[in-house]
Amino acid sequence: MTDMTRTLLCFGDSNTHGTPPITLPRVQARHDAATRWPGVALAALGDDWTLVEEGLPGRTAQFEDPVMGAFMDGRTGLRIALQSHGPIDVMTLMLGTNDVKTRFGATPAKVTAGVAGLLDIALGEEMQTRHDGFRILLICPPPVREVGPIAAEFFGATEVSKALPPLYEALARARGIGFLDAGTVIESSEVDGIHFDATAHRKLGRAIAEAVAAL
User: Fold this and answer.
1) Whole-model pTM above 0.70?
2) Model confidence over 126-153: pLDDT tens digits?
3) H-run or E-run covering 129
4) Does residue 6 sit within a domain?
5) Is the C-alpha dihedral spanning 153, 159, 160, 164 positive or negative?
6) Residue 149: inside a domain, yes or no?
7) Which of 29, 73, 95, 159 could form a disulfide linkage to 61, CB 3.0–4.6 angstroms apart?
8) Inter-helix orientation angle 108-123/74-84, to 10°
9) How far apart are CA 53 and CA 84, in angstroms?
10) CA 108 from centroid of its chain's CA atoms
């Protein structure tokens, strides 16, 4: 970096995008910038940080979605994000919630393997060289609750998602990156079982800022 400004790239799905708990399917909504956890984290980190938000509702770590589209596969999106922005100093990665949808039939190990593939891209020589090195905070999403208007898409997902934190933590340790279990900070909404309300965004944003600073 040629100046003291540092850049945080937040890569994820609807919970990075800022989708509030869903009460009616197919209604598009988004928390405002000050409410979304990336904005909360930015404010906590201070004026010498800038933010890039890369949250796509429906994004998975590894699956082309037969309903939402092939571009939901996070591997393509991550390459595009890392080549579109930068240089970055820290990237947060929070994916896996959509990977536990019933239609993908993924085990906890399979979900974790998808995240490992994304880390292989981000930690590879090409991307690390492009950005002159950057650090990564891997965030495990809180467990899914099978409630609300989209519960049918997540039949059986609670059990799978509850098994993810120790696997993500072990993966982060193996890759030498930071780790945060979001489920120790917040819970998914009781309204739709997936998304975060404004209070949860504030709590998570502050926790992520602390974890990023600790890197």
Assistant:
1) yes
2) 999 999 999 999 999 999 999 999 999 9
3) helix 125-130
4) no
5) positive
6) yes
7) 95
8) 20
9) 12
10) 16
